[in-house]
Amino acid sequence: TPVSPTGKSPYPSSVLAGPSKVPSTNPHLVTWVNEMAALCKPDRVVWVDGSEEEKKRLTDEAVAQGTLLPLNQEKLPGCYLHRSNPNDVARVEQLTFICTPTADEAGPTNNWMAPKDAYEKLGKLFDGSMRGRTMYVVPYIMGPAGSPMAKVGVELTDSIYVVLNMRIMARMGNIALKQLGESNDFNRGLHSTLDCNPERRFICHFPQDNTIWSVGSGYGGNVLLGKKCLALRVGSYLGRKEGWLAEHMLILGVESPEGEMTYVAAAFPSACGKTNFAMMIPPARFKGWKIYTVGDDIAWMKVGEDGRLRAVNPEFGYFGVAPGTNLKSNPNAMRTIARDTIYTNVALTSDGDVWWEGKDGDIPNELTDWQGRPWTRKGSTEKAAHPNSRFTAPMTNNPALSRFAEDPEGVPISAIIFGGRRANTVPLVIQAFSWTHGVFFGSALGSETTAAAAGKTGIVRRDPFAMLPFCGYNMADYFAHWLEMQAFITNPPKIFMVNWFRQDKNGNFLWPGFGENMRVLKWIVDRARLRVGGQETPFGWVPRAGDLDLSGLAISHEQVDAATEIDLDEWKAELESHGDFFKKFGERLPHVLELQREMFLARIETL
Ligand code: GDP
Ligand code: PGA
Ligand code: MN
Ligand code: MN
Predict the structure, then answer these.
(1) Confidence (pLDDT) at 225
(2) Which residues keep their CB under 5 angstroms from ion ligand 3?
(3) Mean pLDDT of 68-80
(4) For the purposes of burial, counting CB atoms within 10 Å of the CB of 236, is it exposed (0-12), middle (13-18) or buried (19 or more)?
(5) Where does GTP bind (predicted)?
(6) How far apart are CA 212 and CA 232, in angstroms?
(7) How confident is the model over 405-439, as pLDDT tens digits?
(8) Helices 475-485 and 435-443 meet at what angle, rounded to 10?
(9) Can 272 be counted among the known catalytic residues?
(10) What is the DSSP code string of 169-193?
(11) CA 295–ligand 4 middle distance (angstroms)
(12) Helix count (H) and strand count (E) of the chain?
């Protein structure tokens, strides 16, 4: 179909399918795309197919527009740099809404807008928003193709950056149209960057309609709609309705020297160590042990026929934090991002390489900072890379990718770990006494805010299950759902709480973290397999003296003691804070959680 040279076409935009025709006969899909095109009024509608040829064409166009900057192709083949608008560098929780029919359904931890108001308000912003632009139709699958757990979404966007990132983060293009067939069961996502004005920025979720509308941002977490919006917010709602769990969790496999494989899922808030833990390389002491990555951010879990919890990673790539990533902390990530990677808001070296705070080697004397300004080691006070600068890389680049990462049935989970970023209070590791006690751990999780979301960093807040920004319905009902799942999981994973981020009085981390976290993981695996002891305390089980393998560890035993210490006064304050948080939910909070808190307090008070 011809596109007129003036960009004004006599044809309805939906028939202008770029190089190809509309590649779907699905009436639900085609009708919806037409409706959204009539609203946004793009000059062209292009259905993406996911081919290599298309990737090249869109990449060239993005480079011509200045959206992507080619990096040194000898050092970093297939890699590009994107600089976002400086006002648009993280998720915006204040501008994120759950649009359920009633405010109660969204609950006290979410922003709520009535669906009708949200459609109206955003509809006005979308009206004509794509004039002079192209609307890309991006069909994608979250989850392994053909998996009973997979879901299809279609994102309409006017951003080539979004298309190219979605291509890495999800199975995208014709493969998704094929999976969808003529079904009406797909997530309807609409995105326009508009003029990237925070005054006109809204991320709205309509769980009942399986619909997401996102305007005014170009930042990953706000606009790659398959990820946080579908796989977590809408996903958690669908999970409750359909009897499964959508979680902010990495999934890894631990293989022992004997070849025994144990799968673990772990929920840490954004920028609290999921990607690093999922790709960890054990220290030399653990010869023959190997970690395999299934996923680094999101887990969809259902109960298998064997009564075990089975997890799939709905994503296809990693959208990871760049600062702090180096050959020592995360060698697998460094290898993963050496090719075919889109970098966002990192610094640039004079020879077209990327740089960020905490990268290997000497700090360069001169750089171009994340905003494209000259930066010098001696003269500049600001960071060269944004603290939330990111890489988008295909998971297939990961040398430690699990060969079960695409298993349609998912991997069986033996342990679930909750962890936050806490300078004090929370010790290195504790095991919950039971599923209910573990759900209490999750519901009361606290963590310091990080650069992954706009706003002040370093403030402790309750971030239950690391899902505070991602739960698509009333968090009290989410807790109830976790408690109810117990009845169906006849062979439940053991539940743990960890903290890699405890500090000494000078603000230094007590625990070396990264690969050394293997020492804690080994104890967790052995506990899950019922072959190592634990010391019973009022808090839960902790490793007995000698249970944690500390041989070859570069830090002193005093330091380990400080990292594992439990301070009663700190815990009394902590439990008060849990109580304040629980009060938000009123009568809707499952009573058993408040009971867990009171029993905990009573156990401490007898000490
Ligand atoms: P994610 O956003 O949860 O995936 O977190 P990442 O794995 O990307 O890590 C976020 C930041 O925390 C990075 O700067 C990491 O270098 C740092 N980090 C990750 N794991 C550890 C750890 O075990 N100890 C310490 N001190 N920092 C860590
Ligand atoms: P993260 O993912 O958890 O790896 O930081 C992005 C986010 O949560 O915003
Ligand atoms: Mn995340
Ligand atoms: Mn991550």
Answers:
(1) 98
(2) 270, 297
(3) 98
(4) buried
(5) 271-276, 390, 421, 514-517
(6) 12
(7) 999 999 999 999 999 999 999 999 999 999 999 99
(8) 160
(9) yes
(10) HSEESHHHHHHHTT----EEEEEE-
(11) 10
(12) 16, 31
Unique residue bearing structure tokens 């959206």: 67
Q: What pLDDT band is residue 606 in, cutting at 50, 70 and 90?
A: confident
Neighbours of 109 (CB within 10 A): 20
Q: Name the token pair of 431.
A: 């095991």
pLDDT digit string, tens, across residues 105-148: 999 999 999 999 999 999 999 999 999 999 999 999 999 999 99
Query: If you take atom 5 of ligand 2, which residue's CA is the nearest one?
Result: 270
| pTM (2 d.p.) | 0.96
> What residues form the annotated binding site?
91, 219-221, 228, 248, 270-276, 297, 388-390, 421, 514-517
- DSSP letter assigned to residue 166: H
Q: Match 């202008």 to its residue by tokens.
A: 16
Hey, whose CA ends up nearest to atom 7 of ligand 2? 270
Assembly ipTM:
0.98
Strand partners, 374: 368
How far apart are the CA of 274 and the centre of ligand 4, in A? 5
Residue type, 604: I
Residue whose CB lies within 8 A of the most ligand 1 atoms, among 250, 276, 332, 426, for a mutation test: 276
Collapsing DSSP to helix, strand or coil, 265 comes out as strand
Is any ligand 1 atom within 6 A of the Cβ of residue 293? no
Q: Determine the Cα–Cα distance for residues 301 and 482; give it in Å rounded to an integer.
A: 11
Q: In sequence order, what DSSP letters do the residues of 94-127 get, joined into one string?
A: GGEEE--SSHHHH-TTSEE--HHHHHHHHHHHHT
Among 89, 203, 297, 445, the mutation site with the greatest number of ligand 2 atoms within 8 A of its Cβ is 297
DSSP state of 228: I
Residue with tokens 């999922």: 278
How would you label 303-329 residue by residue, b for 16+ Cβ within 10 Å and e otherwise? bbeeebbbbbbbbbbbbbbbbbbbeeb
**CA atoms lying within 13 Å on the CB side of residue 205:** 32
pLDDT higher than threshold 80 for residue 15: no
Q: Which helix (H) or strand (E) holds 513?
A: none
What is the Cα–Cα distance from 46 to 158, expressed in whole angstroms? 10
What is the widest separation between alpha-carbon atoms in the chain?
Answer: 81
- Short-list 274, 252, 276, CA closest to 265: 252
Residue 251 has which token pair?
């999934």
**Residue 308 Cα to chain centre, angstroms:** 24
500 CA distance to ligand 2 centroid (A)? 17
What DSSP designation does 492 have?
A: P
Start-to-end C-alpha separation, the chain: 78
What is the 23 CA–ligand 4 centroid distance (Å)? 34
Six-digit token string for 175: 């493969």
Nearest atom, ligand 1, residue 517 CA: 23
CB 509 within 8 A of CB 503: yes
Return the bridge partners of 496, or none.
417, 431
pLDDT at 607: 82
Residues 6 or more apart in contact with residue 14 via CB below 8 angstroms = 22, 30, 33, 34, 37, 45
